[in-house]
Amino acid sequence: MLVKSVFFPGIEVSVGITFQDGDRFNSCQVIYSQFGLAIHQNDHQARRRFVEWAQNEIAVVPDFHKRILFSDEAHFWLNGYVNKQNCRIWNKANPQVYVETPLHPETLTVWCTLWAGGIIGPYFFKNDEGHNVTVNGDRYRAMITNFFIPELNNHDVQELWFQQDGATCHTARATIDLLKDTFGDRLISRFRPVNWPPRACDLTPLDYFLWGYVKSLVYADKPQKLDHLEDNIRRVITDIRPQMLEKVIENWTSRLDYSGGSHMPEIIFRICQVIYSQFGLAIHQNDHQARRRFAEWAHNEIAVVPDFHKTILFSDEAHFWLNGCVNKQNCRIWSAANPQGYVKTPLYPEKLTIWCALWAGGILLQKRRRSQRYSQW
């Protein structure tokens, strides 16, 4: 697989140009690595087995996907802190840049269950003194016994399945036995009646919808206390409409089709669309075939002339604004409503338009000349 790496401040994006069956794992490795995840060689087979099982169940019971209780936890930091492992500064030398964060940032650990019938939760993990704590096996089992099971009293549990990921606190024998008392073999978990594939956050509605949606709203009024943040989380989750949940669950069946592997080139195309849109670019359905044809031609030329790539003069232009202006098409404010945000830029910013040619022999650059008012070269 030929991979193109694109670097810009804070983000590294690697986009596959040619895709074959053997490349799918590597393509996913590159994509997942952007989220701090490391997938393993046998993950794809585990996903395929789960997808085939789920699709078989849906073939027998068309609304089977509406009977699954998807569960997960998430951390909410009071200061909106983002894991520093996801922040990158690209430089040839150590920039000696420091990001100040609290040594022990205040945080809430929240658990929810989401299904077609609604959302159970949020549940906030606290100790006996009422202080916010993270989750462990004992606290998880206490939550199931004292909160989750009582919340199910209004539902026909015999028709429902329960899903959880492979976190250690979820898969301890005592936890599994407790869940089996309610769900029997209708349990989707790591190594249990139905094996939930590892590192499958794209198949969990809480990961691909709920947590991102909630976190996009709860910090809008800049909460200064955990109680305020907790109230915001409760309010946002309570306001989620049933129609929205129906669409989220229906989307899960489409994700099964993609995760089976038959649509992997289309998945990569969609991801490329999203990535390129951040640069103000729009790629089209036939772009992939054009790139494939060019890649095949280049490979053939290099097979005949091994240093062929060193004989190509690559050329392009770029704009440099005096005020460091960035095209506003590359700036996005994601919000459910119009945020009424404005970016002030000069009406006629002074700029340079520069052309270069780059090849193995060096760089061709126009010698410095006195620029006119608007730098028309």
UniProtKB/TrEMBL annotation:
InterPro entries: RNaseH_sf. The lineage of its organism: Eukaryota, Metazoa, Ecdysozoa, Arthropoda, Chelicerata. PANTHER family: HTH PSQ-TYPE DOMAIN-CONTAINING PROTEIN (PTHR47326:SF1), TRANSPOSABLE ELEMENT TC3 TRANSPOSASE-LIKE PROTEIN (PTHR47326). GO terms for molecular function: nucleic acid binding. This is Putative DD41D transposase. It comes from Trichonephila clavipes (Golden silk orbweaver).
